[in-house]
Design the sequence.
């Protein structure tokens, strides 16, 4: 049983597709596309040199063109703040006087212990303050 070269290239493309799915590294997909292109060349009767050359050229071209575009799109994506990072910069309402020793605020619908960023400042009830940091379970406000 003699297997044609294009079948081997397709087996290689599938073999490169497996780590693409397992590791989510798009480079494997680009190599798999190069193997498919080499399979087409083999099916059209191209020699082994042409097949390998097409594989290399297509794979390198995809990596050179697609990777920078993908990296740019990944970098442009807005970062979503979660957890305590989402609370920093928000406004809160003072419930009990807040000074350098402590106090209480209402932040994001919850009651938080708080202290003033500047230990000499104090904030009276009903005043709006800005959360500058979260220190454990205490909001640092100003």
Sequence:
């Amino acid at each position: 049983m003699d297997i044609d070269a294009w079948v081997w290239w397709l087996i290689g493309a599938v073999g490169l597709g497996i780590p693409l799915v397992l590791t989510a590294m798009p480079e494997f997909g680009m190599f798999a596309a190069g193997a498919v292109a080499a399979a087409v060349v083999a099916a059209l009767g191209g020699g082994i040199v042409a097949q390998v050359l097409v594989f290399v050229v297509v794979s390198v071209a995809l990596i050179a063109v697609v990777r920078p575009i993908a990296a740019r799109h990944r970098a442009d994506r807005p970062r979503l703040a979660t957890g305590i990072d989402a609370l920093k910069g928000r406004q809160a309402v003072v419930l009990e006087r807040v000074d350098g020793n402590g106090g209480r605020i209402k932040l994001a619908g919850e009651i938080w212990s708080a202290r003033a960023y500047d230990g000499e400042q104090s904030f009276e009830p009903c005043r709006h303050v800005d959360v500058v940091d979260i220190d454990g379970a205490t909001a640092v406000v100003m």
